[in-house]
Each structure stands twice: as structure tokens, then as C-alpha cells.
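Render this sequence as a predicted structure.
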Amino acid sequence: MLKSQVAASPRAASRGLIGVSYPCFLIEGRPIIATPYQISLAVECARVAVDAGRLRRAVELILRQAEVERAIISLAVVDDPTIHELNRRFLAHDYATDVLSFALDDEDDALDGEVIVSADTAATTAERLNVRPEDELLLYVVHGTLHLVGYDDLEPELKTMMRRREREVLAAFDVAPVYEDEDGD
């Protein structure tokens, strides 16, 4: 059974959807909220536990706050050999990295992009920094999504702004990021 409604449940309110009219469909008695964002997730490396809902909510939060009207975002959790190959092929960097992001199409009101994160790097870094691997992976997804909406970290001033934004987003998930460099900038 398909029935259209407006999202106004306590859960929708807790997700910041009050005042925003998203169609809600009931399929077999369960509400399915249609948002302007299509966020897919492929997990190709299970070294770190992946909370798909948490990763999608973080992406959605960033998109909403950046006032992106529509988006199609693909998330992929891969291993170090895979991200190394992608980094080499597309950016000519011959090493594994934590996150890659690619804006495939960025119109005024729509964004199509990919965020690829390494579960291997998240696990290794989390152990070194004494943080939860799931939180490190979330940081990578947040970082990559911020790149998609226009943040950069090549210059010290821009890096400071991006780190501040990462902290704000991660705070919504009760996560305080720990960075490799001592001052966090």
C-alpha cells in the first residue's frame, strides 16, 4: 500500500525535518520519507563496522546545511589497495589515502558526487589515535562530503574553516574528532 503523507513525526523532528515538507509513503505499514537526497552506500571492506544510517544522516545534514536542493551521493567503503588504485588513477598520487571525493555534476540546485573512504586507514588511524574506528570512518565521510559542497583544506586558513565545520557536524553525532597534528588545525 502506498499512501502519501507529510513527515511530522518525532523522529522527523529529531532529524530536523520540521517545517520541511517531504513526502512520506507508507509501504507495508512502514513510513518511508522521500527526501531530495539519494544517498547510496557500498561496503566493500568490512574491517570497520559500518552504520549505514549514521553515514547517510551525516551526508544529509551537510547537504541540508549547505542548502543543496537535490543531490545524488554515492558512498563507498573500500580497503587500502582499492583507494590506492583510485588515488593513483584519478589524482596521480601513488599512495593509499583516507578519503577521496569527486563532484561529478554540480549545478546551481543539484549535486552529484562520490565519497570513497578507506576502512583500513580508519582502523589503523583509530588505533594510533585511540578513537573508535567507526568515528574515524564517519570523520572521513564528513570530510569528503564537505569537499563536495565547496570546502577546501589546501591553505591553512581554509583548513581551519573546514576543521571547524567537521567538528560542528560530528558534534551532532556526539563525536569529537582527534587529528594527527596536535593543534587540530
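Summary. Residues 1-25 have pLDDT under 50 and may be disordered. The first strand starts at residue 4 and ends at 6.
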